Here is the input.
Amino acid sequence: MLVRGRNEDASGLVRALGLAWLGINQTRAPCRSRSKRHPFSAPRSTVEVTVCTAPGAQVALAAVDEGILRLTGHAAPDPARWFTAKRRLGLDSRDDYGRLILPAEGEAGILRQGGDEDEAGAGLPALPFVIASLFESPRAADADGVARFRFEVPDVNTALRLSAVAWEPARTGAAALSVPVRDRLVAEPALPRFLAPGDKARIWIFLHNVELLAGYRARLSRR
Here is the structure.
């Protein structure tokens, strides 16, 4: 960074920023990682995930709802690709020179945005739903290069993306796997939209056989 003081041609301080590229040695082999998990998982259960990597490597694991990740276009983390990828130059400078250099004419505008709120400030009603977003802190793999994690899966019917990141002092690695999470049998009641006092209604219940064998019978009992 170059700072030029006052002179005859300029009324205030002037500064300029420069940069230089740093080369990264990409010849080292990455820390290979892969995760093992059964292709099916049940909600409201404990799931054990095994990550195979280099012995002694640090491993972190996340399990996030696949639908949320696709809505935001979030890709599975890959440290090696992030640090060595070619990207557009981004530069940010933070200092106190703004206190020394006279500001330009005009004032900074204030952004105003709104919507979804009335005059009283009440927002839209909150809809009850569960988003699966789980994370396990880093832990070291054993002598066989195996790191084991346990998750408490919430009450969801979706797919969880398991994203594992492993690293050593000189290597990094990552692996991702999508695991369906659903009940073996799903009961969906068709409830009336409204009822008045004294009304009687017939409720239909639809049963979706997801993982059970064919030939089961269902019986409805009232308690």
